[in-house]
Amino acid sequence: MGQETEGENSSYPLDELLPVGCELKTKGYQTATIICDRIYVVEGSSDGANFPIDVKIFDKTAGKWFVPTVLGTKPIASRVHSAVFLSNDRILIIKGDSSADDCAWFLEVDTQFVRERKKLLGGEVVAWSKGVIGNKTKPVVISGPSGVGKGTLISRLMKDFPNTFGFSVSHTTRSPREKEIDGVHYHFAEREMMEKDIREGKFLESALVHGNLYGTSFEAVEAVTDAGKRCILDIDVQGARSVRCSSLEALFIFICPPSFEELEKRLRVRGTETEEQIQKRLRNAKEEIDQGRSPGLFDHILVNDNIDTCYETLKKLLALDDVADACSQPSSKGFTIPADHSVPKADQKILVHCGTAASGQACPNLLVFDISSLKGGAPGRTRGLSVWTNS
Predict the structure, then answer these.
(1) 174 burial level (CB within 10 Å; 0-12, 13-18, 19+)
(2) For 336-351, what is the mean pLDDT?
């Protein structure tokens, strides 16, 4: 088992780190990382069993073990892994016998997200975040008042670039309507479970609408990005504010009308609503427009005076002028981390010295993980990880 301390990469048996009489029942391979007065024990699998990695904490001051609430997407255990101390708030776990898209995971122990969940949930909390090699394109948050033409603009994007963009599937606690399919139209969730997930920080934004919960989860957005597409989030201004405050990096675009009078005209021309409904939409629109112009919330504000002109401007913002609609699937980068490896750390680089990979898979002698440009984090992905090989 490995033990990583601040600035050191040394190996000691776990029983040498613990006071006499403090035993830990184990079921697989372990690493122990000391951060201040705590030892974070990460336990993998000794036989390749398909279960999530376990995390336990030993508090040296209190002299006892804690089993924390574990948030985020939990990695599946491997037969062997390495733990690398990055800072007082996170540990890098590198899994052996793993491909590039599953080898790097970050265990957050004292990030802002973890501290917030500790206050909310009470007790000990840690959180997993999957490491992603490279920088994928940011999701796009598009907001605007009813009748502004936002839906038309998004529909045109999806029609012209069907392999470039994708929608995240929202969650709701309402019952499915006729012909609605779970996982396609919505993720239909039990209220108790969705409320629990919201408390645990798994949702970017959520709202109570007509007695039912609706929300966008981190995982739903990340699933679109993992599939090689750029996620579009069509949400209201309040939802955009929640996303802005989260760890998810996104591009925020607000669509507004050329004037309030023109917006009212467009709503009336549709002829689908009563006067009472129109007045309600206008009141909501005025509030959204005022909030949409708040400093620091949206990166770009587009005035939809002419739908064709606005669409061309939107494409330029998304750098789509000369982009062919080709689906960009995530690459495996063509390497596998073998079980036999070591991980010395040098400044902002992790050097992974490889031994022999199983099953004849590609295995370079040296991998260099650059952690100098990490972005994001739990409960979503940690992006910006760069990797170089010697082959």
Answers:
(1) middle
(2) 76
Domain boundaries, the chain: 2-134+333-389, 140-317
List of E strands, 162-303: 165-167, 171-172, 187-188, 203-209, 212-217, 230-234, 251-256, 300-303
Q: Measured between alpha carbons, how far is 306 from 15 in angstroms, rounded to an integer?
A: 71
- What's the predicted TM-score (pTM) here? 0.80
The three-class DSSP label of residue 94 is strand
Cα–Cα distance for residue pair 202/180, rounded to 1 Å: 24
Residue 51: pLDDT above 90? no
Neighbouring residues of 121: CB distance < 8 A, sequence distance ≥ 6:
69, 199, 200
Could you please state the CATH topology (level 3) that the domain comprising 140-317 is classified under: Rossmann fold (3.40.50)
268 is catalytic: no
Fill in the DSSP letter of residue 76. Answer: B
Q: Work out the burial of residue 10: count CB atoms within 10 Å of its CB; fewer than 13 is exposed, 13-18 middle, 19 or more buried.
A: exposed
In the set 79, 174, 266, 281, the catalytic residue is 281
What's the Cα-to-Cα distance from 279 to each of 1, 142, 262, 271, 274, rounded to whole Å? Answer: 66, 23, 14, 13, 9
270 is catalytic: yes
Q: Known catalytic residue: 230?
A: no
Whole-number Å distance between alpha carbons of 13 and 9? 13
Which candidate in 191, 270, 283, 293 is catalytic? 270
